[in-house]
Design goal:
This protein has 122 residues and is mainly β. It has one domain (22-120). It is built from one helix and seven strands. It has a six-stranded antiparallel beta barrel with strand order 2-3-4-7-6-5.
Length: 122
């Protein structure tokens, strides 16, 4: 009888849990017109302002069509290099590269990484 809770705990530990954005398969009909160059990757702890919960988050130094930005999203397998992306959600501002814009980056394995512009670096 003690084996069942141990097996259940083992399966729970093997199951990936994500509380944020996840990488998913690319949409077959989606167009990825934006050139993205990732030059650096950092993993930092990100804590919520309303909760006491912190989680590791992936930050990427990137260039989106010539503008250097800092992207933030869930941890995925990504390496520095050239990718294609698309704007998923535009913030109310009129500029293409505003803080808060949400992008989807097409990775080499045909999955996508959803990320948010968190800042600029020029």
């Amino acid at each position: 009888m003690k084996k069942f809770p141990a097996a259940l705990l083992f399966l729970f530990c093997l199951t990936p849990i994500s509380f944020g954005q996840t990488n998913s398969s690319a949409h077959a009909d989606a167009d990825y017109p934006i050139k993205v160059h990732v030059s650096g990757i950092h993993i930092r702890s990100h804590c919520g302002s309303f909760t006491n919960y912190c989680e590791d988050t992936l930050y990427a130094d990137a260039t989106l069509n010539g503008a250097k930005v800092d992207l933030m999203g869930d941890i995925v397998t990504i390496a520095p290099g050239d990718y294609m992306g698309r704007l998923v959600k535009k913030s109310p501002a009129s500029s293409l590269h505003e803080v808060g814009q949400k992008y989807e980056i097409l990775l080499f394995d045909q999955t996508t990484w959803r990320c948010t512009v968190e800042g600029f670096s020029e």
